Amino acid sequence: MRYDLVIFDNDGVLVDSEPISNRHLAAYLTELGHPTSYEDSIRDYMGSAMHRIHDLVLERTGRRLPEDFDDVFHARVFAAFERELQPVAGVAGVLEKLAADGVPYCVASSGSHERIRVGHRATGLDRWFADEQIFSSQDVGRGKPAPDLFLYAAERMGVEPVRCVVVEDSPLGVQAAVAAGMDVYGFTAMTPAAKLAEATQLFSDMGELADLLV
After folding, report:
1. Other beta carbons less than 10 A from residue 63's beta carbon
2. 17 near 81, Cβ under 8 Å?
3. CA-CA distance, 107 to 135, in Å (whole number)?
4. Rounded-to-integer distance, Cα 196 and Cα 65, Å
5. In CA terms, which of 39, 102, 192, 201 is 20 to 30 Å from 30?
6. Residue 63 · residue 73 · CB < 8 Å
7. Pair 109, 116: CB distance under 8 Å
8. Distance linking the first and last C-alpha atoms of the chain
């Protein structure tokens, strides 16, 4: 293994949550008078922390989202996770191989700690992640595309950024990894390869990742 730490994004990389969460986000924003299609949500918000949604809506419309927006949105999404969420195909095998080979790994997500844990419990991925391997944008001042979250995860895991590789599926996440001075592998299952062009390498099948990292 050429890296000392593998940092996984969560949504769309570990759990197949992006279709669910963006469907509900588009519907809720539209319900609040901000017409948003599923495609709009993927383009504008995929991979971002909640504060970015608030910031973009305010910037574009001059109107603030309701104070309980995050709570209502998360309640809807978490209920859908319990019914529908699946792990990304092939990711359990990747985690199993990393663990067997003794390669350190963690998750660094724009989502909240609660969102990460709900998703992992619903998909059975919680068996692969101890609390000390889970990092959220809640832990730092700025979410992706700022590098803060990835740098924080590397520091907490005791690994220099140059020895880390990030696995990401969003343009914002790729930008954050590059800004952190880390290699980044762009997962193109949902995102057009052209939008992840800054990545060190692109791949479309999660089952291939373990071999690509060697």
Report:
1. 11
2. yes
3. 6
4. 30
5. 192
6. no
7. yes
8. 4
Residues 125-154: tens digit of each pLDDT: 999 999 999 999 999 988 899 999 999 999
Q: Rounded to 5 degrees, what are φ and ψ at 146?
A: -65, 150
Write out residues in the chain with pLDDT < 70, as ranges: none
Q: What are phi and psi of 89, to 5 degrees?
A: -55, 125
Q: How far apart are CA 115 and CA 119, in angstroms?
A: 6
Distance separating alpha carbons of residues 126 and 137, to the nearest angstrom: 19
The first and second tokens of residue 205, run together, are 């099948």
Buried b (16+ CB within 10 A) or exposed e, 121-131: ebbebeebbee
| Neighbour-count burial of 65, counting CB atoms closer than 10 A to its CB (0-12 exposed, 13-18 middle, 19+ buried) | buried
- CA–CA gap between residue 14 and residue 89 (Å, rounded): 9
Q: Which of 48, 40, 42, 12 shows the shortest CA–CA distance to 146? A: 48
Sign of CA dihedral 115, 118, 119, 120: positive
CA 74 distance to own-chain centroid:
15
Q: Which residue, 3, 42, 6, is CA-closest to 21?
A: 42
Q: What is the pLDDT of residues 11-26, one digit of tens each?
A: 999 999 999 999 999 9
State how far Cα 6 lies from the chain centre.
14
